[in-house]
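Hello support,

Our group uses your service weekly, and this is the first time we've seen a run hang past the timeout. The protein is Multidrug RND transporter. I'm not sure whether the cause is the sequence or the server load. Input pasted verbatim:
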Amino acid sequence: MASLLYNLGRLAYKRRWWVLALWTAVVLGTGGAAVAFHGTMSNKFSIPGTESQRVLDQLKEELPEAAGGSGAVVFHAPSGSFTPDQEQAIGDALARLRDIPEIQSAANPFELQNQIDAGAAQLAEGKTQLEAAKTQITEGRQQLDAQQAQLDAAAAAGAPGMDQALAQLQTAREELDAGAKEIAANEETLALGQRKLDAAAGMRTVSADGRSAVTQIQFAGSIYEVKPEVREEVKAIITEASGSGVEVYLSQSITQDVSEVLGTAEIIGVGVAALVLIVMLGTLIAAGLPLLMAIIGVAVGVGGTFALSGVIEMASVSVFLALMLGLAVGIDYSLFIVNRHRTQLLHGMAMEESVARATGTSGNSVLFAGLTVVIALAALAVPGLPFLTIMGLAGAGTVALAVLVALTLTPAMLGFIGTRMVSKGAWDKARTANAAAAEKAARAGTSAEALEEAADQEHSRHGWGAFVTRHPIIVLSVTVLALAITALPAAQLRVALPDGGTEPVNSDAYKAYTTLGESFGEGVNGPIIAVGKLPAGLSDAESEKLQYDVADQSSGT
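Update from on-call engineer: The timeout came from a worker crash unrelated to the input. Re-ran successfully.
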């Protein structure tokens, strides 16, 4: 493989104009295809065959209004309970949100809490009235029983006109029985109401201390499909409520936006890499070449991914992965060859031979490392999850392109750059060192190459490398022990998806997460959606009772 790469490097050096023209055509063609054929990144994730996906599909089919994404908005009154003006300001802001076409609902938390509290009060009042009615029925029965005894005694004494009195008594008894049946029916209704209240006992939209309120904004589509401008509009409208002295926090699902491919972090990373390369290599040209090669590889890889998004449903995270990996490996792979070539030039090797040999030696490492990464990323297709497969293949394709750029375009560019790869100061030091080595070799009666090889052999018998080779068991034991100690925390590792609790402590998402937990209790930040299917043929009352039975069983888990 080294000889093939050696010949490839020599060919790229000799035919550098053709190589440059070919890659220019590839970049322009990929860019044109991305502009002409790109689709919309869906950011919609599905895991076919799983229970959670079946629940989401069922919700979308049978309850489409509940299938969209949602995000929480938390309001907090730092000085105490909400004032009427603050409640009005919050209600007005939420009313404006409901006018946005992409939002299905944004309920007023104070109105909802009032309805919940009013329902509980009505239930308590109904119980009081029911107990009073039952007492009246009991007292009425006692009075009728007393009258019945009097009439029975009078009838036994032969008193006249008893039939009419007995008929009136019977009518009164029937009225009491009807009242008792009505009370029993109302009692059953109240029992169902109590069960409903118990099932929703943990649901509050205003905290018990009255200092925090929360509302859920229900979007028409998936939360990942909400456009950035809609998110910004939501933030702008909600933030107006903070002018009344209320702290407003939006949850992670609203504040998080993954629509931008190139962000501040990527720009800072490239800048830091450029600074390090300049310090290491000494010239802007030498430092800029690995960056340029990485950018070209990323441009082709990401451009191709965008072009395919028109025919393949693709999430923007696929582009992010391709971008990050392409920048990382693109710089490294090109730097391997550039640094080897630079070192060989300083030792006096001819330009063409240096380019070919750098490609054959360092290029071998580049090819092996690149294939390893490509295979690992392509293995993401093994679980059979569509979004994970596309993500892995997009990253693998970009890494493969980074390898091709390093093995073909980098040698060609080294031919264009020539001796400008090395700074003037480095050249002066190298000439002085080479002249001294030649003079020393002449005095020793040997060649400079042989003298350098002897020096390398002598150097290999000292230092860290020599110690490792002489004491392999000790080094291996210490290394394994150090790795084991380092890996000990992994025994307590808990894996989960990121949420508001993993956001920066000064962010709205983190404050919304912590305020919800502190004001409304544990578990409110991690709801679980369960979907049940009622048996056929049930009446409304039976269906309602079955729902409460399920709620009672679920509350005990």
